[in-house]
Amino acid sequence: MASTASIGGAIGKTVGSQRAISGGAFGAAWRRLKRNKPATVSAVIVILLILVAIFAPVLAPYDYDQSIIQDAGQFPNSKHLLGTDLLGRDLLSRLIYATRASLSVAFAVQLTALLVGVPFGFLAGLKRGVVENVLNAIVMVFNALPGFLFALFLVTALGSGIPQLIFALMVTTWIGYARIMRAEVLRLRNRDFVLAAQALGASMWQIALRHLLPNSLTALIIAVALGIPGTIYAEAGLSFLGLGIRDPIPSWGKMISDGIPTLRLFWHLILFPLLALSTATLSFMFLADALRDALDPSRGKR
């Protein structure tokens, strides 16, 4: 029988090797990402959008709900660079604050979905017997639900507002992270470094946090990157229907909805929010796709 010292040495070497591989993999991924010009442009746009969201009160020339009646319905001009809506509110200011609202919802949904889905996926992958069957049944039930329609049902039942919107979208998002985490656990649980940790008496959660989670980061990073643009679209869709972010807080989807009745007369009311929504989602999608290729180069060879 191997001694505790020899097992400890084995796990130390194995874990060190895993960390070295992980660090080298991320370094190589970063170099591949920098060589991807569309990804670089998308990353710059994403960073600018995040900065706009953070510094919205500084960048916006007016408050998002400030109504200047004498300026109502103006087209782009020197005073209002993107014009005003029919209530005299500056469109540029509202777009800036809409960026903050939409990105805040998207990141909050992904974060809460991770906090729920990752531990659930750990349990579903590590547990055996009745617990495993129950957890897998829950995964199957949630996976069978139509995501957007179920979110629509939840916000209708709970009422519109940012907290309700985040909860509804999280409920339809967490299952994806649970499935990914379960698949990663099933892939890793019989590896030498996990078995060595078990032999040393490490608890289930110690193994999860020290060994399984670090080796699952690639899959989770790709999932988050791909999930953000989908969440932005879902929030815009619900707000477009009047079930997402409520007035007076601006949202790209709500601004598009408000501009449709007067599209022929005031084209700018729908054009600029539509451009902002499209630019944001496309930039996140291009960046996510580039991240997936950079972190998983074997995908391009399949």
Question: What does this entry look like structurally?
Answer:
The protein has 302 residues and is mostly helical. The protein has 13 helices and no strands. The longest helix is centred in the middle third of the chain and has 36 residues. The radius of gyration is 24 Å and the shape is elongated. The protein starts with a helix and ends in a 7-residue tail after the last helix.
Helix segment tally = 13
Radius of gyration: 24 Å
Helical proportion?
over 70%
Q: Element order, helices and strands? A: HHHHHHHHHHHHH
Major β-sheet annotation: none
What is the number of strand segments? 0
Which residues sit in consecutive blocks of at least 5 with pLDDT less than 50? 1-21
Helix/sheet category = mainly alpha
Mean pLDDT, as a whole number?
A: 85
- Taking the alpha carbons of the first and last residues, their distance comes to 43 Å
Outline type: elongated
Determine the strand fraction and express it as a percent band.
Answer: under 5%
